[in-house]
Specification:
With 127 residues, the protein is of the alpha+beta class. 58% of the residues lie in helices and 12% in strands.
Length: 127
């Protein structure tokens, strides 16, 4: 997957901006992406239910951690998770083998980067 293949819906980022607590140092966009990669790393292999689609159970802890549990957020979170997966594949942070998702060495290196560098990479897909 190339960078140009990653589709970004501006409504997704409007919603994400509305979720951001301006008094906090947490940046949901980066923190959520890092959370996803760390979870893949922790479990080593994540089962896919279809092409590039982790089992919905994979996202439940993410929803709880970031407060995205309300049904009204379902469409926005699905777009966010698609963005995360697309970027992770475009950057070769994850790979798919048969029906499983795994982190790569590039993904592990991203996890050790500064938060600013992590955010900058994600912003390249938005602008």
């Amino acid at each position: 997957m190339r960078k140009s293949d990653v589709q970004v819906n501006t409504a997704l980022f409007q919603w994400l901006n509305e979720q951001t607590d301006l008094t906090s140092h947490q940046v949901d966009l980066v923190d959520g992406f890092v959370f996803m990669l760390r979870k893949i790393n922790k479990h080593k292999k994540i089962r896919l239910i279809s092409e590039r689609a982790p089992h919905p159970r994979f996202w439940r802890s993410h929803n709880r951690a970031f407060g995205y549990e309300r049904q009204i957020m379902k469409e926005a979170t699905e777009q966010l998770y698609r963005f995360y997966i697309d970027v992770a594949f475009a950057e070769s942070f994850i790979k798919q083998e048969q029906n499983q998702l795994m982190i790569t060495e590039a993904g592990l290196q991203y996890l050790t980067a500064s938060k600013e560098a992590q955010l900058e990479l994600l912003f390249h897909y938005i602008w």
